[in-house]
Amino acid sequence: MPSARRWAVVATGAIILHAVTEMALLAVRFWLYPFLQGLDMARVDAMVAYGTAIGTLRALMIAATILSVVGFLTWQYHVFRLANSLDVSQASPRWAILGWFIPGMNLFKPYQMMRDLWSDLGGEASRARLIRAWWLMGLVTFAVGTGYQLMRSLNEIVHIRTFTLAATNIVHTTLLALATALCIGVVWRIQRQLVQLKAEARHTGI
């Protein structure tokens, strides 16, 4: 399996696992403990089971997050390098990675590079809306997620209504699921376009 495709599989698999784990964590937080008490389980045993489930899911989510970041960035590097070798893009594969880690620039540079790559690969202009939607959804998801974590931290000092915390958590998880679906669409749309372009180059003997 070519490197780009292999890493596309790794990245999307890890991204899906992260989203599923996030949804499972949401379900455990709100429904597991009451469910166990409904089974007449002892309070201590229910709390131990709840804590074990939360800890396991958090560890799995951390692992999925690391794997998804490594997988996506590695896939992106291979895609840009291949686009360079096909002489359809002059964008630096290294900048495709570094753009994610430079404060301020990471708010727009990765999107610009992905959008330009799609254009360089000959993708339909109308399909570029998917990349824009993915980027905007990602920014909104990040903002809501950051707000939720801040609210949880402040809750120890200033009491925040449980309903507000729960609603924010649900909104964040929903947005994450949408961002995940859009991200997968972007990865595989670019991947298919690149494979098609590579096949055409081979056919014409380039």
UniProtKB/TrEMBL annotation:
The chain crosses the membrane at residues 6-28, 48-75, 133-151, 163-188. Pfam families: DUF4328. Residues 40-191 form the DUF4328 domain. InterPro entries: DUF4328. Keywords: Membrane, Transmembrane, Transmembrane helix. This is DUF4328 domain-containing protein. It comes from Myxococcus landrumensis.
